[in-house]
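Usage

Read records sequentially. Each one opens with the input sequence:
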Amino acid sequence: MPEGTPTIKDVAERAGVSVTTVTNVLHGRGGRFSEETRERVLRAVEELGYRPNQIARSLVRRRSHTLGVVVEHFRGALLGNPYYSTLLDGILAEAVQSGYQLKIIALERPDPEHARLNTEDGSIDGAILAAPLHQSPLLHWVERCNIPRVVAGSSPRDLRAACVDVDDEGSVYAAVKWLIELGHRRIAFIAGPTNYWSAKQREQGYLRALREAGIHPTEHWIRRGNYSTLSGRQAMEMLLQVRPGFSAVVCCNDWMALGALEALRRVGLLVPEDISMLGFDDVEAAAVASPPLTTIRQPVRDIGITAARLLIQQIESGQPSTEHVIFPGELIQRDSVIPCSAEPPDSVKRSQHTRPRRRRY
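and closes with the structure output:
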């Protein structure tokens, strides 16, 4: 037995073949060696404990044909979350089509060593880290882990690993710019939680669009929620206290926008006659809201499909990837946004004696 860490040369000597043959076997280049030669090489790999990369490990254990989906902040309602359920649906669709199963790995704590022990135990061929939190320790793990991996959703752009996401910053920037072109100048923002990369990027898009238009918001223009409907309602209630008022509100996700709509209904204000409203995600409820919500659609299912496809490509080719696939968001125009005007529409004028009125800015 050679001393120290075994090398590919050690494997070749043990199997009685060339280094090139060992490389061909480990890369699955069939047709360049016999089955008997393949068995000798893999036996030598196992006996020596040679571990050059994931390719050798996969061939020695014949692969599990299982993809792991790693979730770091599981709170008992994974499938009840529309984002995760849609993402998983896309991952599963691609996995099944390619002959793979799924294993959900719900980590008790976002610790890199904990993640390694739960993913590099031979039970999965590769891992998809689902929407990690901003500055999560798991981002360090995903850059250094010894198995194929992809990050799906909420992915930092400087990540040294394959990732699939939507252009959060650019999508909100374009939507706010559109609102400005419609005449809106006082545009409030209901931001998401700061521990999400996606929320930080959407807020940056909002601020960039205002800054380029020469609009300078104060801190009172932004209120923060936690992506829930209740937090959206509470944030809108605080925005209603700001004077002068706003002509439009952009929400970091649709659920908070739906809560904001409820807050406006409670005080007798109409959308879009009094305040225009724009969300993000295009959840099913957005299309049937009253009024139907203008929003930014992100292709969550396509993100899941693409993440699984990138992962399977790494597994089957044996080649790691740092490819970033960024989908554009799509502005879905419905009935919750209208151009800003100093004068209210006729329908609003007729009702101004029966309910409180807010000045349009």
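Summary fields computed downstream for this record:
- The CA atoms of residues 287 and 297 lie 11 Å apart.
- The radius of gyration is 26 Å.
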